[in-house]
Amino acid sequence: MRPLSPYVSVVLMAILLAGACGEGEEPESQTMEPSPLPVAAAEARVDTLLEVIESTGRVSSARTQELTAQIQGEVVQAPLREGTQVEEGNVVFRIASGEQAAALSEARSAYRSAQALFEFECEHYQGELTEEVRRMLRRTTGLEDASAALSRAQTQYSNAAVRASFDGVVSELVAKEGVVVYPGGRLGTIVDPNNLEVTVDLDERQLSKCNLGQRVFLTIPSLGDTTLTGSVASVAPVVDPTLRAGRVVVELPGIPNLRPGATAHVEIVIGIHPRELVIPEEAVLVRDQRDMVFVVKEGKADWRYVTLGPSGRGMVAVEEGLEEGEQVITSGHYSLAHDAPVAVVE
Asked: What's 147's DSSP letter?
């Protein structure tokens, strides 16, 4: 046999030594556990559930007066700006009425003349002055016609002054001093800022569930999402055949800084369900076209199919699949799998 070269001998020796050193040792194996996923959770509890219809409405004044001109003429008195406060009976606009003033003066003069003639005829009447006779004398002396003419002249003259029907503020200013207006022309609008309501349009199915006096929760974004409680004041008796909808009006409590035109998120309570097992709506997912939730069980996500009942105000009733006191995951669960490790965080 041919002797091995020194180089090959060294290599073989190294291999033998490495094998000898490894005898009796097993390779180390490490199992890496996945880190728990942070999730938010809420406890299933027994509570009263309020079933609601949700929609968006608009705040408006329950009392609005459209001010219009009754005669032709120049506006000689008008509010300086929108937002001006007015009191019931106060003149808001005045229209120049020289012609009406002259007509009123003439009518008053004619009435006084007819009144004097009537009194003279009554004083010198031969016979019994019955009520029927007096009516006859009113006609023959012209007093009846003069009285009607005076009434018309007074109405025309008073139409020159447009007055407020209630305490309020000018919400719209159309005509200003110096502008010539005509009968029927718009001058402005007054609203009552302390008598507000919310109007909301609902489809015919929702409308059928609404009744007078139902409690309503209203969230006002313009007031920092302040939530108010009102009640249904009116429900449209007729469904609009074109829109297949009807209007619901909600009475509002008085609240500072709330203005007509503001948006309101409306929740009309159509059902009260006491002693329901409820969870937040955001806990519910749909998998395989079925409602399900993840329950926190021994630090893992437990997949549960559930049967749901009525819902409202962010909560939903669970009829099957869940027990009182169990924790359901409400956030961080969209990509969870069954038995995934989780850690509930506040």
From this structure: H
On the CB side of 288, CA atoms within 13 Å amount to 6
Considering the domain delimited by 54-62+193-272, tell me its CATH architecture: Beta Barrel (2.40)
Sign of CA dihedral 32, 38, 44, 45: positive
| 284/282 Cα distance (integer angstroms) | 5
CATH class of the domain at 38-48+274-344: mainly beta
Residue 342 in contact with residue 330, Cβ under 8 Å? no
- Cβ–Cβ < 8 Å for 274, 48: yes
**For 219-231, b where at least 16 C-beta lie within 10 A, e where not — what string?**
bbeebeeeebebe
Give CATH for domain 68-95+160-192: 2.40.50.100
Q: How many other β-carbons are positioned within 10 Å of the β-carbon of residue 238?
A: 8
Mind listing the pLDDT tens digit of every residue in the chain (346 residues)?
A: 445 444 444 444 544 444 544 444 444 445 566 788 999 999 999 999 999 999 999 999 999 999 999 888 888 889 999 999 999 999 999 887 666 667 767 888 888 998 999 888 888 888 888 888 888 888 988 988 988 888 887 766 666 889 999 999 999 999 998 888 898 999 999 999 888 999 999 999 999 999 999 999 999 999 999 899 999 999 999 999 998 999 999 998 878 888 888 999 999 999 999 999 999 999 999 998 999 999 999 999 999 999 999 999 999 999 999 999 999 999 988 888 999 999 999 7
- Cα-based torsion angle of the residue sequence 52, 55, 61, 67 in order, rounded to the nearest 10 degrees: -150
Do 239 and 207 form a contact (C-beta atoms < 8 A)?
Answer: yes
| 246 within 8 A of 240, measured Cβ to Cβ | yes
